[in-house]
Amino acid sequence: MKQALIDKYGRQLNYLRLSVTDRCNLRCYYCMPEEGMHFAQRKDLLNFEEMYMLTAVFCSLGVSKIRITGGEPFVRNGIMPFLENISTLEGLEEITITTNATLTGKYIQQLKAAGIRKINVSLDSLDRQRFYQITRRDSFDAVYNTVFALLNEGFEVKLNCVLSAAKNVNDIIPFIELTKAHPLSVRFLEEMPFNGSAAFDDINWNYKDIYNHISQHYDEVITLENSPTSTSLNYAIPGYKGTFGIIPSFSRTFCGTCNRIRLSATGELRTCLYGAPAANLRDVLRNGADEAAIREMILLAVSNRLKDGFAAERVNTKTVHDSMSVLGG
User: Fold this and answer.
1) 8-state DSSP, 195
2) Strand pairing partners for 120?
3) Catalysed reaction(s) (predicted)?
């Protein structure tokens, strides 16, 4: 019988979030500091051959969905041949990508050819000036135009908007109005402490605040059925083509059904975003471990997985969380 990644709480992990780089061409305030980031040296990154081998092992353990993350995935040279290669892995049913969409446009046809149809775009404002304040870069037009180029080519597009009371609450309703005429899914996320600094005291706009704000602007908000492992609470406005969701990423209300496992660009394996690495697969791979040994390490990590993000955070000894670009999201 094929082995599966099942933790001691009976949750099967069939969804791998794979970071292919820690580098990014934006500097979003909630992800990394504007200056002073120490990116991994090239020799410390998993190369594509190593990533392919590890991805194959995960698929042999029941992983059927992979999300490619970063940093920004498309800043890494050679990303498309890698995506094309893993798209043929046995058992892999879906590859999705999270991107800031500044560089994605030129790859649209290649993505289609590789069978990739779902793209999440990080977009935190529909206002050019606020976009600049959040990302510290003037790339709004490239991102916005790519969103609609993807829609025109038949991609399923989700927009991920990280919310802060001091930054972009005024963007919530414009984002929802964007779903009136377009089949977009907008996801509003609570801010998290993964900005690579100590500049995070507590959440200032939680999932309840977000919903209350929206419900005050519309006569009716339809609650949609969520999949068993969904991280988002999903809704729609009657007559609108698209949908919106709210992700309690800091409140962590979804931990009980989490089916995710994470591999960073430097090989760190995490069973929870809020926890410490369970192992570094790059190191053991370069020290000569074979696929069977790698498989056992992954199974051991999953067997020791904690109940939720709060428990994982309590035993994580770091006083300052890593940057999200280092963790891979």
Assistant:
1) B
2) 98, 158
3) GTP + AH2 + S-adenosyl-L-methionine = (8S)-3',8-cyclo-7,8-dihydroguanosine 5'-triphosphate + 5'-deoxyadenosine + L-methionine + A + H(+)
Q: Is 10 helix (H, G, I), strand (E, B) or coil?
A: coil
Q: How far is residue 152's CA from residue 146's CA, in Å, rounded to a whole number? A: 10
Q: Are 185 and 159 in contact (CB under 8 A)?
A: yes
The average confidence (pLDDT) of the chain is 95
pLDDT at 291: 96
The encoded tokens of residue 263 equal 């591999």
- The answer to whether 59 and 106 are in contact (CB under 8 A) is no
Q: Please report the pLDDT score of residue 319 as a whole number.
A: 66
CATH no. for 15-154+187-199+248-327 = 3.20.20.70
Give the residues of the chain that fall short of pLDDT 70.
1, 319-320, 329
The size of the chain, in residues, is 329
Which stretch of DSSP H or E encloses residue 96? strand 94-99
Using alpha carbons, select from 261, 247, 244 the residue that is nearest to residue 206.
247
DSSP H or E run through 310:
helix 309-315
Structure tokens given for 265: 């660009």
Q: 25 and 102 in contact (C-beta within 8 Å)?
A: yes
Long-range contacts of 34-42 (CB under 8 A, 24+ apart): 34/136, 37/196, 37/323, 37/325, 40/265, 40/266
Determine the Cα–Cα distance for residues 281 and 56; give it in Å rounded to an integer: 13
CB proximity list for 248: less than 8 A, separation 6 or greater: 190, 206, 207, 231, 233, 254
Kind of pairing between the strands at 268-270 and 118-122: unpaired
pLDDT tens digits, one per residue of 158-212: 999 999 999 999 999 999 999 999 999 999 999 998 887 777 777 889 999 999 9
Query: Quick one: which H or E segment has residue 80?
Result: helix 79-86
Residue whose tokens read 């994580």: 316
